[in-house]
Design brief:
The structure is a single chain. By secondary structure, this protein is an alpha+beta fold. Helix content is 30%, strand content 25%. It contains 21 helices and 46 strands. The strands form 12 sheets. It has an 8-stranded mixed beta sheet with strand order 9-4-3-12-13-24-23-20, with helices on both faces. Strands 26-25-29-28-27-30-31 form a 7-stranded antiparallel beta sheet, with helices on both faces. It has a 5-stranded antiparallel beta sheet with strand order 40-41-46-43-44, with helices on one face. A hairpin with a 2-residue loop joins strand 10 and strand 11.
Length: 1022
Amino acid sequence: MVKIVPRGNSATADAYLTPKIQTYLAGFFAGFDEGIRTRVKVEFMQSDGGLAPVDSFSGFRAILSGPAGGVVGYAMTSYDAKQPQPVIGFDMGGTSTDVSRYAGRYEHVFETTTAGVTIQAPQLDILTVAAGGGSRLFYRNGMFVTGPESAGADPGPICYRKNGHLAITDANLLLGRLLPSYFPKIFGKSENEPLDIDASRLAFEALATQINKERGDKAILSVDEVAYGFIKVANEAMARPIRALTQGKGFDTASHVLSCFGGAGGQHACAIARSLGIRKILIHRYSSILSAFGLALADVVNEEQEPCALSFTSENFAILHTRAAVLKQTASQTLIAQGFPNSHINCELFLNLRYQGTDTALMIPQPANDSWDFTSPFVAQYQQEFGFTLQGRSLIVDDIRVRATGRSDAALGATASVWDELKTIDRKVPVAREVVDVYFEGGRRPTGVYLNRELQIGDVVVGPALLLDNTATVVVEPGCEAVITSDSVVVDVGGVGTRKVGVDVDPIQLAIFGHRFMSIAEQMGRTLQKTSISTNIKERLDFSCALFGPDAGLVANAPHIPVHLGSMQEAVRWQAEYLGGNIKDGDVLVTNHPSAGGSHLPDITVITPVFNQGKIVFFVASRGHHADIGGMQPGSMPPNSCELFQEGAAIKSFKLVENGVFDEAGITKILLEDPAQYEGCTGTRCLRDNISDLKAQVAANQRGINLVTSLIEEYSLDVVQAYMHHIRANAEQAVRELLIRMRKQYGPTLNAVDYMDDGTPIKLAITINTDGTATFDFTGTGQEVYGNTNAPRSVTYSAIIYCLRCMVALDMPLNQGALAPIKIIIPKGSLLYPSDDAAVVGGNVMTSQRLCDVVFRAFNAVAASQGCCNNFTFGIGASEDGEGFGYYETIAGGSGAGPSWDGRSGVHTHMTNTRITDPEILERRYPVLLRQFGLRSGGEGVIRELEFLETIDVSILSERRVFQPYGLEGGQPGQTGRNILVRADGREVSFGGKNATVVKKGDVIRIETPGGGGWGLPSTNK
């Protein structure tokens, strides 16, 4: 498949993992006689949910093999094709929870990132969250926090008697949801003692004392309330990826069945189902070992795939048919050689299709009856996932894939439906073995205890109840009832509806709302990435999405682009003040002007109000970097601009959508005609992409509105807005505590200065007061320049909020509250407060980086980073033959070292964290060859070298080509960067830090990015 970077990562991961697996297998086989290899079929589960014979088993296809077994297990036992209700798999273990979805077909993804390594191989679409029975519990910054740290199996939770850590398992034990008398005695040093509930109680009593002390005169929380609070926070953390897997893909979460398995899943299933609006839970009798059970039910799979790169047109059908037939034969022969008869082999054909001119491909299965109408399902799936289709564009076949499955005897026999059984079952109420006190919402309640082995088919257990077997506990909450079938427990969930939560701050609900607010911003981001078509947004991820209050203050910003953090709320606030009561339901606003809260012109912000009963109760907004919006240079990042109009279309305020109608004519005029009225400038060079991406931003905002509306329906408007304020206050408290610590460590006054390459100083004096408030005074910073490194005020706010968040060592919500204790003084007419018409394109991507270095230097926090984004653009203008194009990228460099960590090489730092375009995508879409991309010799920056295949405009906008990134505490400075132009005849010239030219075929640009500063004397190696 296309994309060389994930293929390279996959090959590297496989080269590491496969020898390890082979070593393990050698030890495994050594325990048996030689007959195991010849007379016994030994197969292993792969990440795609299929089995592979031992000789074909490889490392990079095994990364998610354990969770994949669970998906097969619940798919085969929970889903009924005759009454096809989709199923969510919820696999909760000790350290993490895996969630997935099944609706009659395994949902595969072909590129995933696990532990920071991107793998390109078929894998089941499984999301993992660091929350499980071993998740550790903390009270931090006024909030209940679960994980991501885990107690593990050794030492494990406190109740394991090995001096462990307070964890979710301790909370369930204390609340009566785990009964030591029914647990095996396998704990303690000698592994012969029961669970220690007394130790868990003592730890929770100590924590409750700490929490109540910090809460002051607020209502005292009991030990049970504290333990239950952590359960609720953990449940919300686990519900978050389920929402992403369903709502994020356009599915209604409540329409699913929750199939719960894993050792700890049954203890949380009812609460999570209620949180998601799900009304049925299925827990198989082998739920605690369902992943292993899935191995017995899985098919043996063999896949064959080859690249294609043909248009999906009737002229190419004969070629496609022939190649597909060859792949089917090859895949089938492999299974026949393993002993499968033809009657047990099924071949599925897939075409990996994409629209011409885009990079997003969808793997489309062949329609029923061997039809070759792949277009209809492609268009339908594209509409489902992305919310639009691209009319008039041809389809490209990137790959042909065949998945051959050999059905196992167990899978062929697994046909009984639990849902059919429920229709005919005779129901009765059993007698509890005993009654114990268990804590639920509101207090402890008498709860029946039942042993699964004693229950009969048809028994109906009314909650509250505990269902126990040798390996798992199922908690049936009040308002729910469980029905026993031949193979499963089916729980009907009651009490789904409006949540009863007060408006006063509660540390448990504070954590829950933190998850919910962040989830809204994250799902907006997923929608924007999916529905956009430009490389900048879809591939480079140069966008941000956020939720704002009715006062336009930031509530939640997903971890997208740091330079957008503080500036987006300035843009929303400007629109709210400028338009006042002229914002109506059904309006969508667009802006990018620096004086209206913009960062630089290519970053276009789309803002949508959220109305409730005729009033604006929230705003949602998305900001994306558009590859071109006109101006004097393709890419709209001119290195030598001196006036704002030279950088493209400038929009202070425009109703992109009014009364629900998208004003395409109006925005076309703004983008295409308005910039062209200035001498030497043109309108946008890629209008079609601009319009498509703006529609994607509108769609992302609509997703946010839908989620906010659902949240209000669930909790009420008063409660949601109350917690909006509470979560801001929480961020403010965290920043105040940071500043108080800094005052004690460094004194009340901090100072720092750094210089841009043209010598312009950025000067900062920080005064910290005893109450944790502070003044950040940039008096002494150089004047506005007749160039483009001027930075709008909103960029300074972004840099400050980012730096403060980095220095707060806790997981705090990032919102307007972080700036509440800060007074910011920026002299008007300075580099950081330029006039309305000043050029600013470099301020957002270079001055912002230097601002971070200055703030961090004042706090003596970390040595300087590369201090630059290394902005490289190329493109051509529109011609009579059609649109031109603009391409833009930022290039990584070095990150500075700190008191306890070394610097990092070849990474994005501070104000940007975009992904660079994969070389194969780059070379497929643009007339360039990537000749070199790697680390600089002896430095922490990178070398990036591109050769051009036709005449094209190029420009570079960069810093740290004069002043080195500083070191601290005796550390050495990092390397400066440099840019080289190599002509086709071999002549090399320095291209300078900010320059533009026209290159011809064979010319090369080589960019060497700056490094990062060191910390401490060279002998410390930092």
